Amino acid sequence: MATLRYIGKRKRSRPSERLNGLPANDSTILRPAGGVLHCLPMTIRRALITGITGQDGSYLADLLLEKDYEVHGMVRRSSTENFERIAHLTHRVTLHQADLLDQLSIVDLLKKVRPQEIYNLAAQSFVPTSWVQPVLTGEFTALGVTRMLDAIRLVDPEVRFYQASSSEMFGKVLETPQTEKTPFYPRSPYGVAKAYGHFITVNYRESYNLFAASGILFNHESPRRGKEFVTRKISHAVAQIKLGLAKELRLGNLDAERDWGYAGDYVRAMWMMLQQPKADDFVIATGESHSVRQFCEIAFSHVGLDWRKHVAVDETFLRPAEVEKLRGDSSKARRVLGWKPEASFDALVRMMVDADLKRCAHS
Ligand code: NAP
Ligand code: G4F
């Protein structure tokens, strides 16, 4: 049944009340204070996103706001603010300090926000770093999931939980294309940590009857992708070279193939998974794979350049163990969720290059 609920304009804290960009007492900001009171015959859906400052978190926040959710984001403390990707919506979301490493901070956060949906996107997500910091990667990316699930059990077992699992779990692939049933063979400490996160999600669903869904997402990119990932590294370098700001792009394995999609399409799948009658696991992928070399060809030719004149192979970017080729089969998601990707590979590459050209020209 629909409930009646007051919502007021959010109270904007004065700068002196703010701490590291957050209101000093952020539990007060949903109080109707001096704003217009609306009495709406509707249930406001409340979601919590961990990793809201990341690529996917920012797109998911955009999507949930469009759907009239009350959106809360978990951010970890840092000495400087890192809100670039959510700068356009900081006035529409509520940010809370907590850390995947700190169990109490997660429990307190859930008690304060009482979300109906939790999207666990926070992770150490860069594969090469996982060899440099394997233990920390395990703490964030593996055990962080258990901390979140235990907090849900303690505070509200009715919460719907989404875990950001990864095609990196398939690693040295045992079949092509990869489906929900393909066994995992991870090739990096990151992939191992994600496999743990996936299985603990499935285990808590089966042990405690939690609504815990695992989205096995293949690589997805956008103009908001971090510059260390290969696609954005390429699109950014293309823009710099085109504008005469750089001459060369140094890359690792040009033969690696990925099933690359557009992040905006993939966050839609996350939301769809939490609207199902029961929690399940879903592969999200385009079904096409392309090499790093092909990405370069399209990106450089889009601005009238020949990639062979600018790209150099640099062994320092090779990995101790490589995932050579990924290609996903998302038929289950297409059938059950009604999901399909909208952006083509070519359109994605061009979108990223155009965005970087614009950004580099302005800065
Ligand atoms: P991303 O841009 O690297 O964002 C990661 C987010 O996690 C950031 O907001 C980061 O916060 C936060 N974070 C890291 N450690 C944390 C901690 N200890 N406590 C709290 N927050 C922490 O990653 P993404 O591309 O958006 O990916 C989102 C999720 O999907 C990740 O779990 C990733 O592993 C997974 N995934 C991604 C892909 C893909 O192709 N993009 C594919 C499959 C799965 P800071 O801003 O403070 O660093
Ligand atoms: O862009 P990448 O760093 O992404 P990777 O390793 O596939 O991981 C991304 O996708 C996963 C999903 O499968 C996510 F779970 C994970 O969080 C992340 O979002 O590298 C893609 C490929 C690799 O084979 C790499 O060896 O590109 C190759 N590559 C070639 N030269 C390079 C470079 N990768 C990077 N980062 N930098 C290079 O210079």
3D structure, described in words:
The protein is α/β, with parallel strands linked by helices and 363 residues long. Helices cover 36% and strands 17% of the residues. The chain has ten helices and 17 strands. The strands form six sheets. Strands 7-6-5-8-9-10-15 form a seven-stranded parallel β-sheet, sandwiched between helices. Strands 1-4 form a two-stranded antiparallel sheet. It has a two-stranded antiparallel ribbon with strand order 2-3. Helix 1 crosses helix 7 and helix 4 (134-155) packs parallel to helix 5 (189-208). The longest helix is centred in the middle third of the chain and has 22 residues, at 134-155. Residues 1-41 have low confidence and may be disordered. Residues 125, 127, 166-168, 218-219, 228-231, 233, 251-253, 256, 258, 292, 317, 319, 322-323 line the site of ligand G4F.
